[in-house]
Amino acid sequence: MSTTSTPTTPPLDMNEIVGSHDLLLVTLDTLRYDVAQELAEAGRIPNLARHLPGGVWERRHAPGSFTYASHQAMFAGFLPTPAEPGPHPRLFAARFAGSETTTSGTFVYDTPDLVSGLAAVGYRTVCIGGVGFFNKQGPLGSVLPGLFQESHWEPEFGVTSPTSFEAQVARAEQVVAELPQEQLLFLFVNVSALHQPNWFHLPGATREAGDTRATHAAALEYVDRHMGRLLAAAGSRRPCFAIVCSDHGTAYGEDGYSGHRIGHEVVWTVPYAHFFVDEAR
């Protein structure tokens, strides 16, 4: 596993950003830090890499080992934690007495979660789902998208679709285009393409051979080919503050483990970046 040292992103004053910028949160579901960093260093994800501070991902620890747990934490303001001793100031936090990671630069809200906290200060909150926890096909799959004022999911966005991310991007472009110019936007996209099954993203791979670390990497390259469109849409109306990260990693046979919802290094260690996007001209 790559152990490239990456600097912790300098703190920001989110109270200056919230209210003046649109906000974009992209979770690259199941993306491993080591694979993400290797591809950035090899020049295989140019659209993402040009936005990464120093061209590298920040190494962080996931707040959960699978999608539901991790997203519940992130929507409560607990984004992946820098993988070095803290405490580390948080960008967002619910008002909570005694919090050691809430600072003067933290956007503090008086609601149970970040999504409703942003809605309370004027943001239109929109979810474009990916994996099953966002499919709205049952009570459990409705919890996370139910936090948002507007949510979208269809089978083409899901894990079995070879064109899932480009379909999600097209929906994001539609959402942005239909918003009044003055309306602030918090757009969340859960990218399903990295999640199993992902074998179909690697030319020559077969269903019978299954998913591998190489097909996981190929899925990230597929996502990168369309990431520029998503970022352009997000920054088309006003400057946008973007967070792109993984919710957890996944194992492909390391120490006999496969998948996630386990306490393994490849699951807990994730890539993270935040940056500004201003595509408006």
Describe the model.
- It is built from nine helices and twelve strands.
- It is α/β, with parallel strands linked by helices.
- Strands 3-2-12-9-1-8-6-7 form an eight-stranded mixed β-sheet, with helices on both faces.
- The longest helix has 22 residues, at 213-234.
- The protein is globular, with a radius of gyration of 18 Å.
- The model is unreliable at 1-5 (pLDDT under 50).
Strand order in the sheet with the most strands: 3-2-12-9-1-8-6-7
How far the N terminus sits from the C terminus, by CA atoms, comes to: 41 Å
Spans of at least 5 consecutive residues with low confidence: 1-5
Order of helices and strands: HEHHEHEEEHEHEHEHEEEHE
General shape: globular
Averaged pLDDT: 92
Q: What percentage of amino acids are in beta strands?
A: 15-25%
Kindly name the structural category.
alpha/beta
Radius of gyration: 18 Å
Counted by DSSP, the helix tally is 9
Biggest sheet, in brief?
8 strands, mixed
The counted number of beta strands is 12
What share of the residues lie within helices? Answer: 25-40%
Question: Could you give a quick summary of the protein structure above?
Answer:
The chain is α/β, with parallel strands linked by helices. It has helices at 14-17, 33-41, 46-49, 67-75, 114-120, 140-143, 164-178, 213-234, 265-268; strands at residues 22-28, 58-61, 81-82, 92-94, 107-109, 123-128, 150-152, 184-191, 240-245, 251-252, 258-259, 269-277. The radius of gyration is 18 Å and the shape is globular.
